[in-house]
Amino acid sequence: MQTGVQRNLENVSSNKSLIRKRLARIIAAIIVLLLSILWRIPASAKFYGYGAIRELVKIYVVIGSWNMSKLTSEHFFVKYMPEDRGEAELVLETAEKFYQPITEDFGYTPRGRIPIILYSTKQELNQSFGWDASESAMGVYWAGVIRVLSPGAWVAETEADRVREVFVSSGPVAHELTHLMVDYLTGGNYPRWFTEGVAQYEEYKLTGFTLSKPEDSLKPPLYSMQELSRDFDNLADQTRAYSQSLAAVQYIVSQYGDDALAGLIKELGLGCSFSQAAEKVLQLDDTQFEARWQSWVLNQTEEYSGKVLF
Description:
Radius of gyration: 21 Å
Number of strands: 5
Number of domains: 2
Distance between the termini: 71 Å
Strand order of the largest sheet: 1-2-3-5-4
Largest sheet: 5 strands, mixed
Structural class: alpha/beta
Oligomer: single chain
CATH architecture of the largest domain: 3-Layer(aba) Sandwich
């Protein structure tokens, strides 16, 4: 038999849940409204319009994780299920490890703590995006939120030190945090291949991890820049697509320097297309950029010596 106190606690919990659901519906309605007008406004205003939508989506996602536990550090908070506390601690520790070098490389410090949501299984992560069960992502960045698959779901180690080592060196945190930096700096104005290339480039600098060897994935014929820009996620050979995006960024850095990469990101943030940004920063039009980076990467892979392209 319930006591009055128990009934009151249940009522409070029920009311909180109802308020969260109503707030989530209100935010969702606002997001739909803003999306309907975003692409009608001038390019200079889209940066701010996109930013507002991103922050609303972030709030919506965090509200949706209200029933999860929470761990907080200086720059992040992790939402997780209670049984995953050990993995959540590892994710938080790893995120803080990469925070300073990545923010220093990009010259940008995000406001507030960055939310990370930890999923116990691949199926749960996929379901959060409505993906097919065959998807095998270990991490995803979208709208200000980093989503991570629990290390216990994919790291094939039993010793705690080895799990930590593998997760830091091969896990998704550095990669997804870089996506966040590019997204905020450009106001979401970037081609898909570019953010993937930059994320892989930063990840390699920090951990030495690469998806594949150039000699295996960069043999001709290469995808065109038009294919990479317009249909990146639907290309038949995803390993090749990712490797090409990394190689294109490596070409930019090796030939023009890190300042050029920063310059491209700055121009994208000002509303330029990548073509316009490349003409301003690299003095190359679309045809020249594609021809030169592909020629460079093919020459590099012919001389492959067991390392990344430079």
